[in-house]
């Protein structure tokens, strides 16, 4: 948290008024919370389900922000008392407690300050992340599976809920493609840093001659679309087909037609979902993914219009390598956009992505989605 006056204490900064110089104006946020709570108590508020859902999401986000900063203010006040006691009593155990609490609060403040760089209109939303193996058969499919595990572990470390929406396994292991929904505030804001081509260099575990192989996988990241408010789908725009879900090797794993293929006729987009056992669940999931892809097309269209004013923009698409993971002859993960690199490849592949994400976000301050 940053205040103009260096003499202000953290607590007074948290207790910001509308005229303060603090980054967060909690008083105004609390007024908006009261306004939304009053609105939600009115019977007519729930007449439009989509608008009501959006307002309740806004309310939950505001409450989370205010509660977090109020909690930090209370902890800062407790630390003031702890410092006084430690100085009076020269107590080593109190000093140790103070150091632990300081480290904990610094970590939380770092995370909160990082959120200040989120400038896109969809950054607070749930993310839909897809991993696609590149050319190379088993090698690339194994690499895609490693990336899938990395993102699932990152979600777990970050206290996000992750659900695999669709998974197409490789013939001999690994995955051809996979789609994951990562639910939680700021999920898209963080994960948008991951879209692009990821390159792996290693000694192949599948090569008897122990030759070095290079594999590629493409990562796509979409923000979840909030219903038909942002994406208008006409009743004649969709062609929906149902079929039996296929298992490993192409055999049928369902005796009834539960898998769903939805084609958006105007754009030609096709979404297939067969993970759920219910046709209705597969249809709902496919529609969710379709809305996200349609919104992404609109975001790209707007981005192309903005690029005409801002100059050349290099999109994070296939062929634009964003990161290399080298496991032989040395160990290194390097992000080619920021120059950030680390030798702890095992930690990164186990979901420790925070330093890489932070480095990217801090280089894109002010960007708009």
Short structural description:
The chain has 369 residues and is of the alpha+beta class. The chain is 42% helix and 20% strand.
What can you tell me about this protein's structure?
There is one protein chain. By secondary structure, the protein is an alpha+beta fold. The protein has 3 domains: 10-117, Methane Monooxygenase Hydroxylase, Chain G, domain 1; 127-228 and 314-363, Alpha-Beta Plaits (2-Layer Sandwich), CATH 3.30.70.1660; 238-309, Double Stranded RNA Binding Domain (2-Layer Sandwich). The protein has helices at 10-14, 26-40, 49-89, 92-114, 138-157, 187-191, 279-310, 345-349, 354-363; strands spanning 127-133, 161-169, 175-183, 196-203, 212-223, 238-243, 259-264, 269-273, 321-326, 332-335, 341-342. It has an 8-stranded mixed sheet with strand order 2-3-1-5-4-9-10-11. A 3-stranded antiparallel sheet has the order 6-7-8, with helices on one face. Helix 2 (26-40) packs antiparallel against helix 3 (49-89) and helix 3 (49-89) packs antiparallel against helix 4. It is flat and about 70 Å long. The two termini are 24 Å apart. Mean pLDDT is 81; it is low at 1-22, 248-254 and 312-317.
Give the helix/strand layout.
Layout: H1 10-14, H2 26-40, H3 49-89, H4 92-114, E1 127-133, H5 138-157, E2 161-169, E3 175-183, H6 187-191, E4 196-203, E5 212-223, E6 238-243, E7 259-264, E8 269-273, H7 279-310, E9 321-326, E10 332-335, E11 341-342, H8 345-349, H9 354-363
Parallel strand pairs: 4-9
Antiparallel strand pairs: 1-3, 1-5, 2-3, 4-5, 6-7, 7-8, 9-10, 10-11
């Amino acid at each position: 948290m940053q205040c103009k006056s260096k003499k202000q204490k953290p607590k007074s900064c948290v207790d910001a008024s509308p005229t303060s110089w603090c980054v967060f104006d909690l008083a105004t946020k609390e007024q908006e919370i009261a306004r939304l709570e009053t609105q939600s108590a009115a019977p007519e508020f729930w007449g439009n389900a989509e608008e009501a859902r959006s307002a309740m999401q806004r309310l939950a986000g505001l409450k989370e922000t205010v509660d977090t900063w109020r909690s930090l203010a209370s902890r800062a006040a407790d630390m003031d008392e702890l410092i006084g006691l430690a100085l009076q009593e020269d107590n080593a155990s109190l000093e140790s407690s103070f150091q632990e609490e300081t480290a904990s609060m610094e970590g939380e403040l770092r995370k909160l300050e990082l959120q200040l760089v989120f400038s896109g209109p969809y950054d607070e939303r749930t993310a839909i992340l897809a991993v696609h193996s590149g050319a190379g058969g088993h090698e690339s499919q194994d690499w895609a599976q490693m990336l899938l595990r990395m993102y699932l572990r990152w979600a777990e470390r970050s206290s996000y809920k992750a659900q695999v929406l669709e998974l197409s396994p490789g013939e001999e292991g690994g995955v051809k493609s996979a789609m994951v929904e990562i639910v939680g505030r700021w999920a898209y804001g963080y994960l948008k840093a991951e879209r692009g081509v990821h390159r792996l260099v290693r000694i192949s575990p599948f090569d008897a001659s122990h030759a070095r192989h290079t594999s590629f996988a493409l990562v796509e990241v979409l923000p979840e679309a909030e219903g038909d408010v942002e994406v208008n789908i006409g009743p004649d725009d969709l062609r929906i087909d149902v079929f039996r879900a296929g298992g490993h090797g192409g055999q049928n794993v369902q005796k009834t037609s539960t898998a769903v293929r939805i084609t958006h006729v105007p754009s030609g987009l096709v979404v297939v979902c067969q993970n759920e056992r219910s046709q209705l669940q597969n249809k709902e999931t496919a529609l969710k993914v379709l809305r996200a892809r349609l919104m992404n097309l609109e975001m790209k269209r707007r981005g192309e219009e903005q690029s005409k004013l801002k100059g050349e923009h290099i999109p994070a698409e296939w062929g634009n390598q964003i990161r290399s993971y080298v496991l032989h002859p040395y160990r290194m993960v390097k992000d080619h956009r920021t120059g950030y690199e680390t030798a702890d490849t095992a930690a990164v592949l186990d979901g420790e992505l925070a330093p890489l994400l932070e480095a990217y976000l801090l280089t894109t301050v002010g960007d708009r989605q």
